[in-house]
């Protein structure tokens, strides 16, 4: 791979990660609402260091950079869509309200909402992967599928911990 191609890939990955990290910071400055338990443990400094390594690793291949860009962009969209609530009532207040809602909700409702939303994203990804003959479109679909899997997995774990009283809150 030549330097120009690597730099293009690096730009694609950097844009995606900047969108995700920037909207996470906008929605949850203290990471109290972050559902990604690894990000929560790392803190902002750790997140930045980890993502610098991710930038250079994923930039080695165009399709890897596309997948990470799609996953990061979908996460950024999700962050931004919900950010108005904690920015209006306060992060701590929203965290407590959300925690109470999770504890009051029926388990089936939580499961269906979380897994059902993931299945919709998964179906978009799988459909793209199945119907396209273009590799770029295939990997865009793969990005949707990975995003869906990650959301279903880490939000389910966070919701479960919250219901058991072991986790403070998620977004």
What does this protein structure show overall?
With 171 residues, the chain is mostly helical. The protein has one domain. Helices cover 83% and strands 0% of the residues. The protein is built from seven helices and no strands. It is globular, with a radius of gyration of 17 Å. The relative contact order is 0.14. The mean pLDDT is 92.
Features:
mainly alpha, 171 residues
Distance between the termini: 39 Å
**What gross morphology would you assign?**
globular
User: What proportion of the residues is helical, as a percent range?
Assistant: over 70%
Q: Could you list the spans in which at least 5 consecutive residues all have pLDDT below 50?
A: none
Overall number of structural domains: 1
Main beta-sheet annotation: none
Give me the count of strands: 0
Mean pLDDT: 92
- Count of alpha and pi helical runs: 7
- Residues in β-strands, percent: under 5%
Radius of gyration based on Cα positions: 17 Å
Taken in chain order, the helices and strands follow as HHHHHHH
Structural class: mainly alpha
């Amino acid at each position: 791979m030549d330097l120009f191609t690597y730099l293009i890939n690096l730009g694609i990955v950097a844009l995606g990660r900047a969108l995700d990290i920037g909207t996470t910071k906008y929605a949850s400055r203290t990471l109290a609402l972050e559902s990604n338990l690894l990000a929560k443990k790392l803190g902002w400094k750790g997140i930045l260091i980890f993502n610098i390594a991710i930038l250079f690793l994923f930039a080695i291949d165009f399709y890897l950079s596309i997948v990470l860009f799609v996953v990061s962009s979908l996460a950024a969209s999700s962050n931004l869509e919900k950010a108005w609530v904690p920015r209006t009532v306060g992060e701590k207040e929203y965290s407590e309200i959300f925690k109470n809602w999770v504890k009051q909700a029926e388990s089936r409702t939580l499961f269906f909402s979380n897994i059902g939303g993931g299945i919709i994203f998964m179906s978009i990804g799988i459909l793209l992967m199945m119907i396209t003959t273009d590799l770029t479109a295939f990997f865009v679909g793969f990005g949707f599928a990975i995003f869906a899997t990650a959301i279903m997995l880490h939000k389910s774990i966070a919701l479960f911990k919250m219901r058991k009283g072991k986790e403070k809150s998620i977004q």
